[in-house]
Amino acid sequence: QIINSDLKNLIKQKKFTQAQKLFDSIHKRSLKPNAESFEHVIHSANTAVDKIKYVDEMIIHRVMPSAQIFNSVLVAYGDSGKVEESTRFFDKMIGIGSSVGVENFNKIIDICAKEKLGNNANVAFVEFVGDMFSKMSRMKVAPSSVTYSCIVKGFALRSDSMNALKYYEDFVAYLKSTDDSRTSSSLKKSCISNVVKGFLKSGDEQGASEFVQSFATQNENDDCLFSGGAAEKTDFVCVLQEMISRFQFNQSQNND
After folding, report:
1. Closest of 193, 207, 174 to residue 243, by C-alpha
2. Which of 36, 47, 111, 219 is 20 to 30 A from 81 via CA?
3. Can you give the pTM of this predicted structure?
4. What is the pLDDT of residues 185-201, one digit of tens each?
5. Low pLDDT (below 70) residues in the chain
């Protein structure tokens, strides 16, 4: 416990190299690091390679990584652009029986949503999403609003407006069927905005306008999407319409 406290203090002081040296000294003292020790040193590691080294050591010591450690490694891979490595690590954690929760699925989906994944980006992402839902079902992990929002963003970035719209509808259905008090207003607005962006990126201005118009007139969405009611929704519709107008202006400038 004293070593763990020292590790925590070193990390607070951002003395990461010293923290890792202290951790390495545990073995020399014939002591066994516990989950807290690993959590501190993994958070101090600067690269995905270093984080993985300590995760591998955790597995050797039969200490299962927490969801937070799991995500920190995924983020390190994602930030360094090593998306394929992040998916392999994700599958490895499942393979060793790690407790994988919805937050871990959301993180890997978010990482892959931002990545083009080759020339057949749409096909690859469709297959990836299908694989994630299959794994979630097998492991009895229920998707959350964040799951659907990340998927909508992924399809919007790939100009796949139809799939973005499909998973937006799943997003709304989820909010209607559950207690969505933990879903922030900003996440809801981001999901809706990404549907509009998906239409615009695919060059379908009419589809974007029709979606916004349909959204503006569907009162049944108000309760689950806007705690502020009709006034908040009206203001947001204006934001969406401005997004479309800016896109149309930019297009006209490019054509000139």
Report:
1. 193
2. 36
3. 0.81
4. 889 999 999 999 999 99
5. 1, 27, 116-121, 179-182, 220-223, 228, 255-256
Q: Which two structure tokens, joined as six digits, stand for 66?
A: 């927490």
Taking only the tens place, the pLDDT of each residue in 131-188 is: 999 999 999 999 999 999 999 999 999 999 999 999 999 999 998 888 666 678 889 9
Can you tell me which residue has the tokens 């000294």?
A: 25
